[in-house]
């Protein structure tokens, strides 16, 4: 079964299930998984840091990742075995010097690396940057991450 | 405005009228450029949840050609001129004979699209400026061809505002026949919505 994760959302699943999120541009798909427990989580993060008191917790890297961590642990993942894979963080419009709004992608990626570093979760694969969108799907039992693009084919990381 | 998605009827009516004025000017400019009648339908003014941003374009992964502009001045926001690849190629070939063939979009086609977006946005905004006496200036147009959601999610990635719903003034563009060829979106930021509505003589949304 494939579980769909919308924008600014997160889900966990296990076993032969998969988690998928569509059309990541400057948003980043963050996955955490424990291959031994066959548990994975996926968050679709849109911005680096949350305004105080936000209810939209999965929208921001700094609130989404600690929460995703507790969700996968609750599902049976062992914290010390957790690994992360990321995809997205593109800059969709080329030639856009000086426009902050279009630099969000690289800044999202930086914020996510910082969070994962603080939480001591190693990032074992990443397909980030560029100027194209991505759809991703993680297989919960293997942690294999499928990345699909419109202009640059598809591959696994 | 997080969590609020009722738009006052009066506010919606006034924003729709404003959209009509902008769209009328933009359609005239585009008709002149293409030497063919262009119609822009009465705009829809609606609050779109961030998860449904690409629904009108055929879903998150549908391939679209998009011109993006930022609006600066008294009213800030973002504008998108979005169409399917087939419509984009048709538009390009009606500007440059012989272009718009093949799988991708050529460099000339790319800049033609940007220029069309530029003309639409400049005319749309200047009509709004005349009407409201507020400054609204378009940035340089940026062009991208990719998945609809990957592009349009930018409308929800403005760090100055928080909200799961964006106010969008959405106009469908018709070329020659009844077929809907393109979409024109204006997303004023929440503070810009207040500025706009105050200038038009009503209190604000909600």
TrEMBL record, chain A:
One of its GO terms (molecular function) is protein-glutamine glutaminase activity. It is an enzyme of class 3 (hydrolase). Its EC number is 3.5.1.44. It catalyses: L-glutaminyl-[protein] + H2O = L-glutamyl-[protein] + NH4(+). GO terms for biological process: chemotaxis. Keywords: Chemotaxis, Hydrolase. The keyword Hydrolase applies. Pfam families: CheD. Signal peptide: none annotated. Gene3D superfamilies: 3.30.1330.200. SUPFAM superfamilies: CNF1/YfiH-like putative cysteine hydrolases. Probably deamidates glutamine residues to glutamate on methyl-accepting chemotaxis receptors (MCPs), playing an important role in chemotaxis. Belongs to the CheD family. This is Probable chemoreceptor glutamine deamidase CheD. It comes from Sulfoacidibacillus thermotolerans.
UniProtKB/TrEMBL annotation, chain B:
Residues 12-46, 108-141 form the CheC-like protein domain. Keywords: Chemotaxis, Hydrolase. GO terms for molecular function: hydrolase activity. It comes from the Bacteria. One of its GO terms (biological process) is chemotaxis. It holds the Pfam family CheC. InterPro entries: CheC (IPR007597), CheC-like_sf (IPR028976), CheZ_family_phosphatases (IPR050992). PANTHER family: PROTEIN PHOSPHATASE CHEZ. This is CheC-like protein domain-containing protein. The lineage of its organism: Bacteria, Bacillati, Bacillota, Bacilli, Bacillales.
């Amino acid at each position: 079964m494939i579980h769909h994760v919308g924008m600014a959302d997160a889900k966990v699943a296990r076993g032969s299930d998969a988690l998928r999120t569509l059309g990541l541009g400057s948003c980043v798909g963050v996955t955490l998984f424990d291959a031994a427990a066959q548990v994975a989580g996926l968050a679709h993060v849109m911005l680096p840091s949350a305004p105080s008191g936000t209810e939209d917790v999965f929208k921001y890297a700094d609130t989404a990742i600690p929460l995703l961590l507790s969700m996968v642990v609750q599902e049976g993942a062992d914290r010390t075995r957790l690994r992360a894979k990321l995809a997205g963080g593109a800059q969709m419009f080329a030639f856009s010097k000086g426009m902050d709004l279009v630099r969000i992608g690289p800044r999202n990626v930086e914020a996510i690396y910082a969070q994962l570093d603080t939480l001591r979760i190693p990032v074992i694969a990443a397909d980030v940057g560029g100027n194209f969108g991505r759809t991703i799907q993680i297989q919960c039992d293997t942690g294999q991450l499928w990345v699909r693009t419109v202009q640059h084919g598809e591959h696994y990381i | 405005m997080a969590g609020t998605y009722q738009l006052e009827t009066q506010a919606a009516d006034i924003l729709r009228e404003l959209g009509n004025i902008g769209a009328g000017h933009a359609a005239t400019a585009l008709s002149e450029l293409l030497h063919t009648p262009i119609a822009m339908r009465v705009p829809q003014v609606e609050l779109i949840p961030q998860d449904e941003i690409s629904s009108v374009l055929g879903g998150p992964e549908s391939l679209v050609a998009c011109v993006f502009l930022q609006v600066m001045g008294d009213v800030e926001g973002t504008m998108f001129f979005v169409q399917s690849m087939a419509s984009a190629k048709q538009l390009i070939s009606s500007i440059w004979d012989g272009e718009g063939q093949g799988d991708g979009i050529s460099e000339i086609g790319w800049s033609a699209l940007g220029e069309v977006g530029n003309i639409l946005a400049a005319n749309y905004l200047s009509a709004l400026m005349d009407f409201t006496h507020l400054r609204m200036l378009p940035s340089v147009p940026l062009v991208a061809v990719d998945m609809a959601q990957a592009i349009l999610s930018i409308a929800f990635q403005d760090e100055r505002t928080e909200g799961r719903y964006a106010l969008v003034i959405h106009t469908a563009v018709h070329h020659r026949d009844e077929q809907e060829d393109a979409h024109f979106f204006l997303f004023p930021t929440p503070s810009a919505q207040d500025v706009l509505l105050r200038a038009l003589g009503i209190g604000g949304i909600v």
